[in-house]
Amino acid sequence: MRNYGMLTLALCMNGFNAYAQQAPVIADYLGEFEGQEAPIMIQHKKQYLHSSGAVVTDKMVYFGFYRLVAGVKNNAYGAFNDAGKVIAPFKYDEVSLEAEEDNAYPQKNYSVVIVRDHGKYGAVDSLGKMICPTVYNEIAVMDPHLLKIKKDGLWGWANMKTGQVLQAPQYDDVNQSYVLEGAVQISNGRKVGLAAADGHILVPAEYESFDFLGYEGSPFFGYTKQNKTGIMHKNGTLVTPAIYDKCSHGPGPDIFAVTQQDKTGFVNAAGKTLLPLQYSHVESLGNFVKVAIGDKKGVVNAAGQEIIPVQYDDIKSFDGSGMIAGVGPVRNAYNNHGMAPYFAVTKGATMGLFDSTGKQVLPFAYSDINVAIYHDQAYIAVQQAGKTGLLDNKGQPLIPVAYEDIPVIATTTYLYNDANAGTDKDDFLPVANDGRIGLFNIATRKEILPPAYDGIEWQNSQLISLRNGDTASLATRNGAIIRGGKQYGFFTAVDTNRIVERRYDNNESVSLLTDITGNVLYANSYWEFRDDQATRLLMPVNAKSDHPHFNNGLLKIWNASRKNLFVDTNGKEVVLEGYSFVGDFYNGLALAGKEVAPGQELFGIIKRNGEIVYPMTLDDMAAFNDSLLIVTKGKQVGLIRKDGSAFLPIAYENISAIYQEALFKVTSKEKEGLVDANGKVILPPVFDYINYREKTGLLEVSKDGKKGIADTNGKMRIPVKYDELYTNRRGDDSLFPILVKEGKWYFYLDTNGRAFPYKSLKKQGYED
Hints:
mainly beta, five-stranded mixed β-sheet, disordered N terminus
C-alpha cells in the first residue's frame, strides 16, 4: 500500500559511526527503546533518539517502509534511513514518505521522499540524492517508476530513479493507465489518450475514456467516444468502431463480447463477427461463457463457437476441483486433477452431462449432477430418483445409481475410517442406504459390503471392522464376513491373519486368539484385551493411536494372574522371567521393570530375548517428544532416545524444550544452562535464568545478578556484566538497541555491543 504523511525531523549527529568518536552527552534521563525510538531528556528538554544512535529529534512522526523515518525539530522537516543517514535535510516545510513494499511482486516496490520548501515541491531518493528540484507546484507518485510533476497548472512526469523529466508539464492531468501496463493516461479537457513512459504518444487524446476488458495482460482495451464504446489494440489500431453500449473479453484472449441495445454477440481480434447480437445475457464460466436467449441457455467456447445450443433451462459448469466455474476466481480449463470442465445441463426436470467439446456424455435422466473430490481424485456424482451414483472424470460409471448417499463425497455423520487401509485405499468408497453404510470397490465395480452397518473401520490392509449397534463383525478386504453377528462380542485384528475375539457365553467371557479360518490358537478367560490396553511409550506419535497388534512376533497378554505373559503368532505362551513388568514390544524393544525392594520398582528397556538395553535403574520414564524419553533417577532427570541410548545424562533437576528450536534448557543446582540436539553443552548450567526470545533467536541471561545476551551458539553478544538490562520493547526482529546500567550510569548498546554517545544517572520513570 502507498504511504503518505506530512513529516518532520532534525539531525543531532550526522553519520552512523559518529557516536563512537565523540564524548558522551550527559542526559537528564534515558528511556527504553520502543521500536526505532527511545525518549531521552537533554537539558530539561524531552527528545527522541533513533535506533541508529545517530539522530535525535523533537518528535518522530512517521516510520515508513524500508525503515525510513521522519521527525521534527525546531519546526524543520526531513527524513533519514535506518543507519541514521539523513536523506532529506531538516530544512523543509513538509516531508512525505512515499513507498511500496510488495514481497510477492517486487517490481512494484519503490521509495521516494517528497519535500516542500517555501511552497514548492521536490523529491529525494532513498539514498539522499535530490532527483527533483523544489520548483514544482505538486509532485506525486504515478507508478513504481514515474513521478507526476505539476508546474504552472499543467502536469508531466519524471523518472523516479533519476529525476529525468520524460514529459514536460503540458497536460491537464496525467495518471497511471489501468488498461495498458507501463503506459500513462494523458488528459486535456475532457479527452484522454495514452502515452509511453518516454513521452511519445500511443493514442491521441481524443477519447472520453478507456476501459479494462477483464483480461489481465491483454493487449486490447475498450475506448469510449460519443458515449459509445469499442475495442482498441495497444498500438492504437481500432478493432471495432465505437458503436456498442458495452464491450468485455469473452472466453478466450482474442474473443470479445459486445453489447448493443441489450443484445450481446461475439467478435474476434480482427473485428469479425463470430456470433451475432442475439444473446440477452452472458455469464463467464472460466474459459467458456454461458449465454441466454430469453429463458434458454447455451455455452460458447474460447473459439467463439456455440458448442451447446441455446435451448436448455439451465447450465452449470464444474472444473476438476469440484468448484462451480463462474463462482469466485475464473479458473483454467484444466487443473491439477487433469479434468476438463463438464457442463451439467438442465432440461425440464432432468439433467444431462456435456463435455468441454459440447458432446453429450450422459442422457437427460438425472435429478442432479455434481463434481466431487475424494483423496485428491475428481469424480462425477449423479442423482436419479433419490439415489446417487458415481462416474470417473471421463464420465465412465464407477458406482451404480443405487445408493442414497456416498458419504465421503458429502459432509455426513457416517463413520468410515480407512487410515489403516492398504495402498489401494482410494479404490474403496463407502455407500449408504437407510442410514447404514457399506463398501464399494470402484476398481472392480463391485459392492464389497452392503449398506447394513453403523460404522466401518479398516484395522489393517486385509481386515475390516464392522459395527451395527452393539453387534460387531469382521470382514476381509473382499467383503467376506469371517467373524461376527453376535451381540456384545468384539473382534480386533492384531495381524493380517490373526484376530483377538471376546466371546460371551452363559454369562462367562473368554478372549481368544484365532486365525483367519477361526481356528483357536490361544484361549484365556482372564485376558484383559482392550484397544487402550498397551504400553505405547516407545512408539512414535503416529503409531500410538493404532490398535494393539503383534510386534516382533509377540502380543502381550494383560491379566492379573501371570506377569509378563506374551503369545507368539502360533499361540504359544512366552514368559519373560525376572521382571516385575514388561510392556508391549516395538521395534524389538519393550519397557521393563524390576522390583528391587517391597514397593520399589525400577525401570529400563530390554530386547525381545531379554537382553538389557538400558539398565533397570530408573524411577520413572515419560514421553518428552517423538524421539526422546525423559527419565528420572532420584531427584535428577535426563533424556534417552527410544532405542535406549543416552542423550543427556541424568544430572539435572529439570529439562525443557526451547520452543521450535532443537535446544534444551537444563537446570542443575538451581542454575540454568543450554544444550543442543546433539547433546552438546551450549551454555553451562551456571546462570540464574535463561530467557529465549523466539523471534530474535537470542537469549537473555543472568549470572550472579549480572545480565547479558547470548546467541544460540553460545556466543555472548553482550557480556554478562550489567546490573540492569532492558531490551527493545517493540523489537520483533531484534532486541536492540538495549538500555543497560553499569555502576551508576545508564547507557545504550547497539547489536555489536557498542555504546551510543549518551549516558545518564537516571532511567526514565513513569512520571517522566
